[in-house]
């Protein structure tokens, strides 16, 4: 077993031993871990990341309100330990089906839907201080990357510059990926696969000596961790390219400051020096894109107000200016609107000029 794999096994065994000790002492077996709720999420002004506060929660076996969740947590811990013992990985969906069984002499299932097994796994991350990836449980692959980078993954040498039109499919677990060669000045992460395909076909990464990454929407944990590793280990700036809308801004916010759902993982999931590259209100004006505006719905305005009120954006004049302009426009704008200026406009003019002028939002 690899050295880095020992901690999850040790933590799971310690977790189990603590419960055995409770039983041997005639005590009610109890699990205690940080409260994972909005009321316990705090913004650290020093690290500029979201994290969990000091509130704790307990889950006791001999408690009618706790018993089922207690059992679900133990079941997921057992599944993870079995996976680690045989050196295999399972998907979140696999784990759900492995946990879904009926308790003897009853019609009660340990889990009824995947939400329950997923939440138990998140609790187990807190209990063991190990990510689900370290516990050998992975999510689906939902991203692509291209660039002048050579890696070793599961014994295979992979060159991100020579993988055809699809690029390298980013796994949910990138902890054991070893970088052999990284030749790039920066990384551009974009929310839309179609934009990534445009840049890849135009060989933007080769011409501009960079790495291009996409996740087809909200960033996956594997991609966030990959971006963090490239930033930490190779000091590569991370630029975020998203739509000019509240949802694009939220994607950037999650990357840079963390998310409420993953506040307990902020140490390995946030990019404190990420910069927002676009699209901005200024782009809409400078490139005459207002005719491509998409009129706001009530849900868009509500989301914009929520984001503008985030503590990390409240005192940021540059961001508040963007929020105000968006509110005044009463509209949003997609990245693909840049195609109206020419099919290669984004790769030949828009991005090179913005990066050269360092027109970023922090």
CATH topology of the largest domain: Dna Topoisomerase Vi A Subunit, Chain: A, domain 2
Uncertain stretches: none
Trace the largest sheet across and list its strands. 10-7-13-12-14-15
- Can you name the CATH architecture of the largest domain? 3-Layer(aba) Sandwich
Please give the alpha-carbon distance between the first and last residues.
Answer: 42 Å
> In terms of structural class, how would the helical and strand content be classed?
alpha/beta
The total strand number stands at: 17
Q: How large, in whole angstroms, is the Cα Rg? A: 23 Å
How much is the average pLDDT?
91
Number of domains: 2
Count of DSSP H/I helices: 14
Q: Could you name the CATH class of the largest domain?
A: Alpha Beta
Strand percentage, roughly?
A: 15-25%
Biggest sheet record = 6 strands, mixed
Written overview of the protein:
The chain is an alpha/beta fold and 362 residues long. It folds into two domains: 3-138, Winged helix-like DNA-binding domain superfamily/Winged helix DNA-binding domain (Arc Repressor Mutant, subunit A); 144-356, Dna Topoisomerase Vi A Subunit, Chain: A, domain 2, CATH 3.40.1360.10. Helices cover 42% and strands 18% of the residues. It is built from 14 helices and 17 strands. The protein has helices at 6-24, 67-86, 92-99, 114-128, 193-201, 204-207, 221-234, 246-257, 266-269, 281-286, 298-308, 311-314, 317-329, 345-356, and strands at 30-34, 41-44, 49-52, 56-60, 90-91, 137-138, 144-146, 148-153, 156-159, 168-169, 178-183, 186-190, 210-214, 238-241, 275-278, 294-295, 331-332. The strands form six sheets. It has a six-stranded mixed β-sheet, with helices on both faces. The protein has a three-stranded antiparallel β-sheet with strand order 9-8-11, with no helix packed on it. α2 (67-86) packs across α4 (114-128) and α3 (92-99) crosses α4 (114-128). 35% of the residues are buried. The mean pLDDT is 91.
